[in-house]
Amino acid sequence: MALSEMEDGAYFVKVKSSRWRKTRHIQLSRDHLSMHVRHQSCGSKKHKLIDIKKLTEIRVGYQSPIWENLGRKLPPSELCFSLVIEDENNPLNLVAVTPPSAQLWIKGLQHLNANLENLDMKGQQLLWTWEHFKAADKDNSNSLSVKEVKKLLDKLNFAATSKYVDKHLQEFDKSGDSHLSFEEFTDFFKKITWRPEIERLYKKYCDADLKLQPKELVRFLQNDQGMNDVTNKMALELIDKFEPDEEFQSKKVMSIYGFTYLLMSPVGDVFNHKHRQVVMDMTQPLSSYFIASSHNTYLTHDQLFGKSSVEAYIRALEKGCRCVELDAWDGDDDEPIIYHGYTLTSKIKFADVIEAVRDYGFKASSYPVILSLENHCSVQQQNKMAEILKNTLGSKLLTAPVDPQENTLPSPEQLKGKVLVKGKRLPKESESDGEVSEEDEAADVEENGVKKHQKSKKNIKLSRALSECVVYAVSRHFNGFADAEARSDFHHISSLNEDKAEGLAKSKPSDFVKHNQWQLVRIYPKGSRTNSSNYNPLSNWNVGCQIVALNYQTEDEETYLNQARFRSNGEAGYVLKPPCLLEGNFDPINITKESAAVDPTSVKVTVISAQQLPKPPNNENDVIDPYVVVSVFGVDADRQSQKTSVIEDNGFNPMWMNDQPMEFNMLVPSLAFLEFKVMDKDSKGSNDLVGLYTVAVQDIAQGYRHVHLETKGIKKLTPATLFVHIEIENKLSGTGF
């Protein structure tokens, strides 16, 4: 009933600001398998379709920042909701005419969204096939002509001859009308996507009747996949979950289709599916963890003219970011604001950001959020900031030590659900406002819109009230490792720009590692990166720096590598540093086979095949010639790269059956990443990136695995995958991970 009412549509008011409000007609559009929200201006024939798959969140009531800015024009909460849409910077904010209408759409969209998220592998594949079928059906006849099928196959990187297509179309054209219905096309598509490499693997374990018994599934998972804890009961559960054939399911056996779906699922992913939840010890001091961190979190684009947005904080927090930056300045009407000072970036209210932290800080992760506060405010507005922090965050704001007798930083576990403020703090003996030196990053003065470091920092007035909001991350200028050890303690944190950090990592790596074993360090981009580009975080992680802040708004290889780092441990935003960084005098620069921290490990990678690779954005015409580059990033001694041969004219189902395994020998696998990069060989120019995937070596699952490819912007290229075999051996113990 609800869906039919949604198909009839309803009128809403679309809200962009207190001055911009327009009436829109919204209705649900359904065709067979796919669904869209149709969004149309009143009196206009033009409309916009929003794919339900692209709805990443449905916010009920006043959850989006826009509502707080409407003042007296604010509609009742029960009429308001916001749709967060993939690739859109701002949500679609809607006001319903009546509460029942709002509830109908909120619950209806939540239901449809949940159904899509819970689709099994068969359902996902069917939906993908339908969407491409509909796109190819240019005359809306609900069938595809021979010409339309050939165009679709070309789009899908399938370089088939006309003879091949004609032969198979005749085989599946049951109606004999030279067209394929969706059901006929689905059978045809199943034929051309058949996986002979999986068939060979399946036949190693199935019985004479081509059925995989539970005990044989256990044997495959233990022997080939390294899943030693699998039991017969777990095998039965996997059959129940992945077997699409009801007859096979009732007999408690698995068909080749169920076996394929299993290998395509998270259980068969190259990323160890157990690491999708928190698996690390979270009771160590904060200094023992890498912490997901954002620089100038408020910006959506560049550092000079970009828009500041509360939504940028929400997006960062929803990605698992645990340290966000706030550049606070005096605003009008005693309201502190956040923006990139001395630039033309727009301004947002400090209060709105703190409300976003309250509402979204602990949705993706329950572990502590750190507010890196760069304070440029007068004492009066600092007092206002302290008031906002305390009133908005309440008990979430940490205002006292966890244990007054402690001599190390508390753990993420002890600080669950807490917000920490990083900033300057007055001496304990000070009873009133006082002077402190400004933040290190604030000391980078503006010159033609570019920050440059000034040697002598000025003092600023600090309010007592704001000072009391800072407990553990007490900002202190870095004057060298000896000075830090003699004159600071575990409460302090130093901020270094990327150049200074890189210099220390190269000149005094062991000292840097030891310093990071007991005190927090934050690294931030140099001021000349006005386009919001990023530095490579690897060298900072290799010496144990915890808070390596990047411009999250920029989709580049650096933020992609950062995502790979924090994909681990349930995307909690905290990753325990390896033992070599937690004790001893590890030197990541001058490492040798004789170094104490060395853990020699071999990773053998065999690239077997690829499935349904897309064409690169700048090469939509030709069928691609793919090859795969596999690289290791980590300490300098472990960096290496190998590649497969080139498969010509086949991006649909290329196979590398004649390629030899690639062997990567590593000295410090605990700091290493494995990158899979699919490239399109271009004989006339530079080769194009098709898709990639990066995984920390400690997160790799062994055996026959699928690598689900993504863009640099961390968008999935479904259903594009690589099928690989991975074997890991520790050279000291002779065992895998």
TrEMBL record:
Record Gene3D superfamilies: C2 domain (2.60.40.150), EF-hand (1.10.238.10), Phosphatidylinositol (PI) phosphodiesterase (3.20.20.190), Pleckstrin-homology domain (PH domain)/Phosphotyrosine-binding domain (PTB) (2.30.29.30)
Pfam families: C2, EF-hand_like, PH_12, PI-PLC-X, PI-PLC-Y
Entry keyword set: Calcium, Hydrolase, Lipid degradation, Lipid metabolism, Transducer
Enzyme Commission number(s) of this protein: 3.1.4.11
Top EC class for this record: hydrolase
Acidic residues bias locations: 432-447
Residues of the EF-hand domain: 124-159, 160-195
Name of the featured protein: Phosphoinositide phospholipase C
Domain C2, chain residue ranges per copy: 583-711
Cofactor(s) in the UniProt record: Ca(2+)
Domain PI-PLC Y-box: 466-581
Disordered: annotated span: 423-450
InterPro entries xref list: C2_dom (IPR000008), C2_domain_sf (IPR035892), EF-hand-dom_pair (IPR011992), EF_Hand_1_Ca_BS (IPR018247), EF_hand_dom (IPR002048), PH-like_dom_sf (IPR011993), PH_domain (IPR001849), PI-PLC_fam (IPR001192)
Catalytic reactions of this protein: a 1,2-diacyl-sn-glycero-3-phospho-(1D-myo-inositol-4,5-bisphosphate) + H2O = 1D-myo-inositol 1,4,5-trisphosphate + a 1,2-diacyl-sn-glycerol + H(+)
